[in-house]
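During the second year of the project, the team shifted from modelling isolated chains to modelling whole assemblies. The rationale, set out in the original proposal, was that interfaces cannot be judged from single-chain predictions alone. As a representative example for this report, we include one of the complexes processed in the last quarter. Its constituent sequences, exactly as entered into the pipeline, are reproduced here:
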Amino acid sequence: MSDDTILKIRNLKIDGKTGDEWLPILKGIDLDLKRGEVLGVIGESGAGKSTIGLAAMGYTRGGCRISGGTVDFEGTDLVAASETYRRKLRGKKIAYVAQSAAASFNPAHRLIDQYSEAPIQHGVMNTTEAESDATELYRRLQLPNPDEIGFRYPHQVSGGQLQRAMTAMAMSCRPDLIIFDEPTTALDVTTQIEVLAAIRDAVEQFGTAAIYITHDLAVVAQMADRIQVFKLGETIEEAETRKMLSAPEEDYTKSLWAVRSFKATAKPKPPADEVPIVELRNVDAAYGATPVLFDVNFKIHKGRTVAVVGESGSGKSTAARCITGLLPPTKGEILFNGEALPPGYRQRNKDQLRQAQMIYQMADTALNPKQRIEDIIGRPVGFYLGLSGKAQRERVRELLDLIEMEPDVYMHRFPGELSGGQKQRIGIARSLAAEPQFIICDEVTSALDQLVAEGILRLLDKLQIDLGLAYMFITHDLATVRAIADEVVVMQHGKVVEQGPKVEMFKPPHHPYTDLLLSSVPEMDPGWLTNLLGARERGEIVDAKAAGASDN
Amino acid sequence: MTDATNDPTALSADAQAPRVEQESRWTTIRRAFRTAPLTAWFGMIVIFLYIVTAIFAPLLAPFGEKEIVGDAFDVPGSEYLLGTDQLGRDMLSRMIYAARNTVGIALLTTILSFLLGSFLGMLAAVLGGWTDNILSRVVDVLMSIPQLIFALLLLTILGANVVNMILVIALLDSTRVYRLMRAVGMNIVVMDYVEAAKLRGEGLWWLIRKEILPNAMAPLIAEFGLRFCFVFLTIAALSFLGLGIQPPTADWGTMVRDNAQLITFGEIIPLYPAGAIALLTVAVNFVVDWMLHRSSGLKE
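Output from the structure prediction step:
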């Protein structure tokens, strides 16, 4: 190969230890990266994306081993190289940007000190040079107050800023290769844009090669020159970005691409005089002395889905907590079928509690790990409906059938023995066991892979049609809103800024914040980010400052 | 049940369900033992030997617990394997009976302190607010006085007998269990599944028994082992000071004290009961370390 290729991975095999056995994580991966090229690595969780990112630095996580193959970086095999040699490369020639910047920064040191660490360690710069260089890079990454921000501690800047500071840190030694491991996954859509743009510009300016790992196709479309699709430790397909997006060859890739096409069946508008199942009237709420909700009003009708959207901190989950009674509102009332509910859940009777159920974002923490599936689902059946023994078991079987899981296989299992999507299905079954009229879905798909998430959405839609359920669907993902919502409520800073039927919401004119949210959702078109930033520059589309978004 | 007797299929389903559970639990335990490190095996064997000794003390001991069989401070020989003590009682027999007393009392005390401490700790974690504040402040006050001195003080006031000693040590030790249980419980209480149970309308007892306790078992069991050692040492120390297990009942702590003067003559006899204490402590710690490692590491 010519000098052009900076990273050449050949037949790389990595095993992970499970119990006493070594199981393969990567099953012989080939990967090439040219100087200045950005390679997008796509796959579901468990595909080995992060493992290959770390392997590109000659590193494996604890409990993993490289069992074969080579990682050739600038002509040296990192697998065979000494640890001293690899350590010299890391930070200087190869840098890494992790998913959670908040967890990756040391909270006890200022940003600029952490920035300077690598250049000083590797003897590239002295402290003064490093600090002035940091300011320069902060400016390039469009951080506010670049001269001053480095002297803050990690908790004093927002998530999006922290992620950019981390990218700056990775670039401190002007490495030849940066590995980005899901750098924007934990961020809000409106913040994600800024980080994506900053990363792309920086990579272009310095001609750095990059491996960009993500599960979000639309994001990778903006960032990568070339895309490699992984599944269970194997390469499925590899092509130029435009070609990959327009004409994927493998079935698996096509299925990934097709996920975004799911649309729930549209439901007719409810009659104007119908009493809504849930209604929030002038609800204010506060955590201690801090007010978080201001005069929130919305209605949810039988058999319909109301999506509540907004970025983190906008009060959408707080509204749900008010409805469930976990956080009694300070003002206003919550009506259920036209009757006011007692504010706190302790004052509600069994039937009121039964009627409103909740499905949680993290299925891992929503199911008691020490209870078997039949007990988890069986408890609400026994508790609310008074069934026990055989009748209860029969009902659990019915519910498992309903969520499309084989009762005989799963009844006796613990949650730890299920996959993420299956756990979420159990969460759904548990809420259905109470035979409610209304279910709050709090970001139920955001922790799941796209294929799995789509399955959950389809299931929820089917259940809604069969059982006439009303959903309050809390999400920050507008693709999910498009797929499942009948009505949309947009929240910002604890207020409802706009609400209405979905069809109208996706048509202009909008409240500026809705506009910002809508325009920030990445699209599959590789030119989307460039066009959007151009349009925002020219003032054709509202930008974050104009909409008063919290991050900037 | 009446349904089940009429319906044969229901009966078989009933019979099968528990068996599945037992099998999987059994294999888990078997796998745990198979992968246990050497230190854990050593610990388990030593603890097993202590238990056997305690249970079969009358069969194993050549003489009675309180029987005076010869001269005081007889040297070890064929008749008295470890010699005799200051009253002429057989050291070996007393060591064997002491296993019963010391270990049994320590076990009882630890169990009591765990029942008290973990129940109150869970209550504080679930209820929070005033309950938590009051309980925690009381515990702070109890913990602010050095444990051994406090125990000595209380036993002097209440009178030194075995029942008082068990109650005093159990109370003082339960403060440590309380703090652990409260901390572990608080991490569990914020879990979504506990919130789901609360929203379902479950009562306090269900929350404690079904949602929190099963998830707190691993750290509690590990702590039980450690606490057992501390209690054991406290009892030995109190006995050594004369306020613990009262003569003529055999007990390792008292035996060390009674024979301490022999050290000055270059005899190692007082070190035998001390060694028995040390060995059990080390063995329990080995087993606890292994359990801690298992509960903190990869779970099944």
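Chain B touches chain A through 30 residues (CB under 8 Å). The radius of gyration of chain B is 24 Å.
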